[in-house]
Amino acid sequence: MNKFRAFLVVLFFVSFNSFACLNGETKILKNGAYVYIDYRGLVPHGHHFLSREFPQIIKQLDSLYRKTNDIDYLSDKGYILIVQKKYDEALELYLNIEKIKPNRYSTASNIGTLYELIGENQKAYEWIKKSIQINPESHNGSEWLHLNILQAKIKKIDDAHLGEFLINNSFGKDVIPKIDLPKETLKELAKSIYYQANERMSFIKPKDKIISALLFELGNAVKIIGENENAIRIYNLAKEYGFQDELVNQRIIYCYQSKNKYVEKENQKLYENIIKVKRSKQGVDVDYVGQIESVLVILSIVAALLLIVSIILYLKWKNLRD
Prior knowledge:
322 residues; mainly alpha; Serine Threonine Protein Phosphatase 5, Tetratricopeptide repeat
């Protein structure tokens, strides 16, 4: 029976190998208050803000700043104001902090973010560049991508070349995404794209062409890394944010086909094991053989369903193309 349960666990992960959950990155302020808890993995959802606590947190931060004169409390208040979309108030606060204590990384970074949120991209570029000079490893080393995003907005890069411009690379135009990077470098690229996409999804709802392009490139990276289910989720998020190139539909279909082939391969392994057991005359466990056959049937059904989904997606993509 333990062996049978092991087979069921394998079957479960074939279909749900990358299900997202909380307990990802968290942001904790200096007073110990939690601002958000993120999902684990490379599928961006935006920050899960604990917004009900914000009015009380702001009162605490104001009180602690008056008692200690510690600028970190004032800076944390500014971050809460950004999350509350009180951009003018937050910008005034951070510009004042810059006068009181200049050249702080968080001040420069947040001023840059605020200018971007209100549409002043040139000023945003200058402040984000300054923040990188202060701390090159900031935001998990992804701020080079933030600069590229701002440059794309300033230069008004067209949609056809936006993704390549943002990541300084290309996954090609074929159905199967390809890139000339070592796997570890690709993983770092995926983390950078995830970080920048996740930050923006926290404040910007669909549709947005920068986010849609980031999500499409992230989907490509995640597919090559081998997270098939997550790649499908990310591609669909790209479409939700307005990504319109038909290549995204082709790659979603390719992901389903890859999943189908994987199930077929596992199916074949199980079938070969059954044949071996049946041919053996020693130590035959008839119940166990029956259990394996049951799993084989289930896998066959899963493979058939995946094939049907692939066909439906293909037909939808073909209709969109026509």
